Write a sequence for this structure.
């Protein structure tokens, strides 16, 4: 284990570590363009040059392994001078059209040339112009070769991570340019990631292009609800332009580093699946097409539940919970329907056709919390059975959480349920065909408006944070249920999600010893016996 | 907190009580304020108000005869360089404006008449009143890349600071229309869209 000194700070690292990794551990950021912790080292951008004592020449920190007693300077005058020269070199053919560049604001090229005072070019040569400015290279990404600094991060990503080999660097010297191979398109299922790793604005996301400037965005840590992998993400939403909020809040999703789950990546399906947060939402409680107040909505359900309970017919309550709900929501469902209203039939495993999957991130189960739902609800009924009973009129109150029954079964089934059931409640965030047949629609919040936890396919419990308040009059799922239980006369008494989670940890063995603080942003594995 | 306001209220009540121990202090404070306001007693002549009346009459007549004389001279083309009445016949005759005065915005145009703005949103970012709203879109010419599909300025909110003009890297927005009289019947009409801003 060699010990070295970087900028006066000592650190001991395993042999074979490079200087840039050691510096990262110390919290010292050495500038970088081509180096990426998840990709093989290429060492072509030269911006990460540092000075090692007793070595006459500067070294690239991304490729130089540490040795015992090394003394490294990352900010000496010599280093700064060289960094400035390298920046100048990188900018030789760079258009510097930051005002129309989507990367501006999160572009390290821009940041460093401002920092090092490279405002005006000293070169008299004309910049080499490429034939085309920005052009499409696939369904999700645009390429602007003029802005590319040939760091080859994108090439290494498609060569090593997705192994689809779309990118290459063509021609030589001043004329070298990045492009996709002739006849190829960047259309793999992880293509959006090249935009994240491109250190400049050469690769831009068609979906995000020109929508918003990056400095308008606020970032909230979350977990992708797209499949049971539960990739860690940040929800990036527009907080600067209240006028624009009328249209949409969420502007884009970005992967968040988590070594144990998704590393630095996420799939395109998940990345572009955010429109439902702002579009097509149920805004108010509705009883048979009439907008009503929450009070009355809760009253309606409570009345029905009360009468069923007083006649001891809780077995005529059917609940179709969902693995899209958080652990907290599911626990409150368990409390209400399996304890207070003991005998109610609860399940979440509706027959969903398996989705696409691969060996990297994408999982066939498209729900973010199947493992959590199994462990918390411990269902003994089965969803198909509940629906069958509802059709034959053996269920008086059917409570559906967010499932589109018409897509899962068919229109005729839902029509029959609507006719046979005394009360058919749909609690969900978005409008779908089933809403039209439900007697009562209750608007609930989406994951980006919730505090809670999801359990992914590895059994890792991961936190989500609320980015903004629920749309319209929507409420969190457990919020609605605790109002309901208060109306029933058996209040659960939860003030926030954290209290519920404490209760989960105290009640359920797999969750024991967990708390929000311990889960933090890296997650914690379930204890499975 | 509530305790503090209650205490303060009692203090004030004591202070304003006409029979209380603060009454004499208050009188003294009022007298001092009176003296500090620099008023003096009027003498008997001033009390008749006649001198002030004459003064006013003189001032009005002076301007009247001055303007009458010079307007008549101007009619005959004499003494044109000496101005007469200082009243501007607004709105028929607008006041001359200083060159650097910031007036209503306009969006400048390229040679082909299309909008010059590249929708970089610098102005939207800097605007302290948050009254600019731009929706960018892809320009058909890839060398321009970006253009404002929508460009709205809410002049009901604008504080005429001119920051937007300073921030623009393209000289695409200027405040030199010399239009000051912006009035509308609805708030919605105060929002100027791209078309109105380009008309100048
Ligand atoms: S890549 Fe960076 S430096 Fe280049 S135009 Fe875009 S923001 Fe500016
Ligand atoms: S497109 Fe971006 S990531 Fe790819 S080589 Fe150019 S600068 Fe690097
Ligand atoms: S003048 Fe000031 S307040 Fe008005 S639009 Fe420009 S930046 Fe905004
Ligand atoms: S700063 Fe200028 S170019 Fe940029 S959006 Fe505003 S008017 Fe358009």
């Amino acid at each position: 284990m060699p010990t070295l000194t970087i900028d006066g700070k000592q650190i001991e690292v395993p042999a074979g570590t490079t200087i840039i990794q050691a510096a990262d551990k110390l919290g010292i950021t050495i500038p970088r363009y081509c180096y990426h912790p998840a990709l093989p080292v290429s060492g072509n951008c030269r911006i990460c040059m540092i000075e090692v004592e007793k070595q006459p020449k500067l070294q690239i920190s991304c490729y130089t392994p540490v040795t015992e007693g090394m003394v490294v300077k990352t900010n000496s005058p010599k280093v700064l001078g060289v960094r400035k020269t390298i920046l100048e070199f990188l900018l030789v053919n760079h258009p510097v059209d930051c005002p129309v560049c989507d990367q501006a604001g999160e572009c390290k090229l821009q940041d460093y040339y401002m920092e090092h005072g490279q405002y005006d070019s000293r070169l008299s040569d004309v910049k080499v112009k490429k034939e085309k400015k920005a052009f499409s290279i696939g369904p999700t990404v645009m390429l602007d070769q003029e802005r590319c600094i040939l760091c080859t991060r994108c090439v290494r990503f498609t060569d090593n991570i997705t192994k689809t080999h779309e990118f290459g660097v063509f021609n030589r010297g001043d004329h070298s340019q990045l492009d996709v191979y002739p006849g190829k398109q960047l259309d793999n299922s992880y293509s959006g990631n090249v935009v994240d790793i491109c250190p400049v604005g050469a690769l831009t996301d068609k979906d995000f292009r020109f929508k918003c400037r990056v400095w308008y965005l606020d970032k909230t840590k979350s977990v992708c609800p797209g499949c049971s992998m539960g990739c860690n993400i940040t929800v990036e939403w527009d907080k600067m332009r209240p006028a624009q909020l009328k249209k949409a809040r969420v502007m884009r999703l970005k992967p968040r580093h988590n070594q144990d789950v998704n590393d630095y990546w996420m799939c395109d399906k998940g990345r572009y699946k955010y429109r439902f947060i702002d579009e097509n939402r149920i805004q108010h409680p509705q009883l048979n097409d009439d907008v009503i107040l929450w009070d009355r909505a809760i009253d309606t359900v409570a009345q029905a539940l009360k009468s069923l309970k007083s006649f001891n017919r809780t077995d005529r309550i059917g609940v179709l919970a969902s693995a899209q709900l958080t652990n907290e929501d599911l626990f409150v469902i368990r409390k209400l329907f399996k304890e207070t209203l003991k005998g109610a039939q609860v399940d979440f495993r509706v027959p969903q056709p398996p989705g696409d999957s691969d060996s990297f991130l994408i999982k066939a189960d498209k729900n973010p919390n199947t493992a959590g739902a199994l462990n918390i609800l411990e269902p003994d009924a089965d969803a198909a059975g509940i629906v069958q009973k509802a059709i034959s009129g053996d269920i008086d109150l059917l409570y559906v959480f967010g499932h589109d029954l018409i897509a899962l079964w068919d229109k005729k089934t839902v029509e029959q349920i609507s006719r046979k059931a005394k009360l058919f409640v749909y609690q969900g965030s978005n409008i779908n065909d089933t809403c039209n047949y439900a007697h009562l629609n209750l608007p609930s919040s989406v994951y980006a408006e919730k505090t809670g936890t999801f359990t992914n396919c590895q059994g890792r419990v991961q936190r989500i944070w609320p980015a903004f308040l629920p749309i319209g009059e929507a409420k969190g799922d457990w919020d609605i249920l605790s109002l309901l239980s208060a109306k029933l006369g058996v209040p659960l008494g939860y003030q926030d999600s954290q209290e519920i989670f404490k209760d989960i940890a105290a009640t359920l063995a797999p969750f024991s010893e967990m708390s929000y603080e311990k889960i933090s942003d890296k997650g914690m594995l379930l204890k499975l016996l | 907190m509530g305790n503090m306001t209650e205490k303060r209220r009692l203090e004030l009540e004591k202070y304003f009580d006409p029979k209380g121990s603060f009454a004499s202090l208050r009188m003294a404070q009022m007298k001092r304020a009176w003296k500090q306001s620099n008023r003096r007693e009027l003498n008997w002549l001033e009390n008749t108000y006649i001198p002030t009346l004459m003064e006013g009459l003189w001032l009005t007549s002076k301007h009247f005869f001055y303007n009458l004389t010079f307007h008549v001279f101007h009619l005959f083309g004499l003494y044109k360089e000496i101005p007469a009445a200082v009243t501007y016949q607004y709105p028929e005759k607008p006041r001359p404006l200083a060159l650097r005065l910031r007036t209503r915005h306009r969006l400048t145009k390229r040679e082909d008449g299309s909008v010059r703005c590249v929708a970089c949103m610098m102005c939207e970012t800097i605007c302290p009143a948050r009254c600019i709203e731009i929706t960018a879109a892809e320009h058909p010419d890839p060398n321009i890349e970006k253009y404002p599909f929508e460009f709205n300025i809410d002049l009901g909110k604008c504080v005429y600071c001119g920051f937007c003009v300073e921030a623009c890297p393209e000289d695409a927005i200027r405040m030199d229309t010399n239009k000051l009289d912006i009035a509308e019947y609805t708030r919605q009409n105060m929002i100027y869209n791209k078309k109105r801003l380009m008309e100048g």
